[in-house]
Amino acid sequence: MLTYLFKPFANIEKGETKQSLLSVILLLFSIVSVMLLTTELAWSSETASAVETAEEISEPIKVAPKMGPSDYRQIGSVSSRAFVWVVAQLHLFLAAFVLAVPLFVTVIEWIGVKTGDQRYDDMAHEFMKVSMTAYSLTALFGGTLALSLFLLYPTFMAYMMEVFGNQVIVYAMLFFLESGVLYIYYYSWYALRYGNKKYVHLSLGVLLNGVGTTLLFVANAWATFMMAPSGVNEAGAVTGGIWDIMRGPLWNPLNLHRFVANIAFGGAVVGAYAGYKMLSARTMAQRAHYDWMGYTSNFIAVLAFLPLPFAGYWLMAEIYAYSQQMGITAMGGILAWLFIVQAVLIGTILLAANYYLWNGMSRCDGSKRYTWLIKYIAFTLVVSFLIWVTPHTLILTAKEIAALGGSHHPLLGPFGIMPAKNIAVNLMLIGTFLSFQLYRRSDKEITVAWAGFGNALMATIYIVAIANVIFLGVYYGYFTNTVYKVGSSVAQVMSTLIVIVAGVTIDTLMFKGAKTLPVTWGKISNRGVYALFALPIAFTWLMALMGYVRSSVRTHWHVYTVIKDNSTDNFIPNIGYAANMMTVATIAFLILILFIFWVASLSETKQELPVNKNANNS
Amino acid sequence: MKTLKNWLLSFVIAFAVFYLMDHAIMSMQGLPLNMTM
């Protein structure tokens, strides 16, 4: 029996299907038992409280603490908020990275199996190697964060433990499972290489992502509880079960937004790794390999980034629905400038990603047919970007109001509200997808008989979609009421999605039997590769920025409307201070990433056998 | 002539797709398309 446990995959190739089936069942059994145990732990706290009620033990219901100066501590004269801010931010950067990489690694590995192309498998393995170093760093920052929260905010953390109870143990148990599966997945890469064994390996990848995503959702519940508490009454006493507490109004919007953003962020970071390896490559073959890896990373980052504004829109809409005051604090109050900074960073990301694609077109001579379109895409991106960064409701000084000619600029005012920005965002996404489509077509010579009709249909879909987005935004945004204004933004998003779906479908059909033109990987200019470094820097900064906004909308509450913040830091800092803190966290993460890249490439470096000089001279 | 036919047919298809989509999305939210507001 034990041999199955220790050598679970040994017999699969030998046709001993019964034994291999048994080993898979054993593996599944062990997984299910761990999951049942964790669920049991989560529910036991509720069962216990029910038993106590039945026995009529008269214990007062614990309400939220009223915080006083004695409930806070400091390390010397360092602001507790600043300390936790940086540690939490670094933990989140690293966690986002190590949860995202296995997601696309499993997909790339599966593509490798389906296409039979060994290069995909090698690339997936190399991506995984980079994230392995980051994994232990994530745990170290997580431990530091937990300890510093308990040290600096003991009363608040005691309340959080009171509310979440055994759920935090489930989180810890999931980590044992995550580590176990991660190590088996990474170190069994070459042991489970072909045939059925490869599918066992892929299944491990799926399992790893299942555990990782669950971890993310469990931890998100803590953050969304602080923003929009549920399962407790006004005094903060727990009135519901663990699901009532976790399933607050913002939990699922945040789950979706973070899940998608993690993939985009992870893709951007491994893109920088590929760029770094490509610029330091000694041979043309190495340069070509890392060029292809960089292209794939950028593809993942942009693909995940395209739906991200819509997930963010949903999250923000739910925040407004939960508390209009909270929404206005974020987008029309003290934090409004930060949304303008966000637009600048997103514009940077889209421009860098497009610039990389345009540069990448030089890998193939067939791209000359499409380069005339680039200037129009660039023009659309820049104009849309400028509309997106136009502010509307800002806190202004008297001098600024005089210079502006009122609280809103007479000509630029209309560009400041959401309909104009919705048009701009959708046009930028359509433009980015067009860059993608041109890139994918640049190495194909289409031979299907209906090529003329296909191209005409694709072009008219672009033209009508752009006209539709502008019509919906202008007419419903400025000439009807608010309900129509918000409703029409859904149709705008659908227009963009129709372009993407139609583009993929028409191209897939048109590429049948197409002649493939030669592509020279590694031919891209170094300037194009620099865009791969701009992406993770902009992404990291953006996460620091919007993470601060998400946290700061609680204003002077630890748990919104339940626990007031009475620490010395119970104010929103000025924007300059906040921006400096975000930048400190961003630079610290980039230094850590350089360390991670260096360690990952160190494992391939071998010292040459020293040659004895004296022996040669004699 | 064939090119003109391609473009006309494409335009009719694209216009129909987006017109129907606008209708469907707006009426799903209880907001019928209305050009006189």
Structural class of chain A: mainly alpha
Main β sheet profile of chain A: 2 strands, antiparallel
Radius of gyration of chain A: 27 Å
Helix content of chain A: over 70%
Counting H and I runs of at least 4 residues, what is the number of helices of chain A?
21
- What is the CA–CA distance across the termini of chain B? 41 Å
Span of the ends, CA to CA of chain A: 65 Å
**Poorly predicted sequence stretches spanning 5 or more consecutive residues of chain B:** none
Q: From N to C, what is the helix and strand string of chain A?
A: HHHHHHHHHHHHHHHHEHHEHEEHH
What gyration radius of chain B follows from the Cα positions, in whole Å? 14 Å
Helix vs. strand class of chain B: mainly alpha
Strand line-up of the largest beta sheet of chain A: 1-2
Helix and strand layout, with pairings?
The complex is a heterodimer of chains A (618) and B (37).
Chain A (H helix, E strand, L loop, with lengths): L1 H5 L10 H38 L25 H36 L2 H35 L1 H11 L2 H21 L7 H33 L14 H5 L4 H29 L4 H22 L2 H15 L1 H8 L4 H25 L13 H15 L9 H7 L13 H24 L2 E2 L5 H28 L3 H29 L4 E2 L9 H27 L4 E3 L3 E2 L10 H28 L10 H5 L1
Antiparallel strand pairs in A: 1-2, 3-4
Chain B lengths: L1 H27 L9
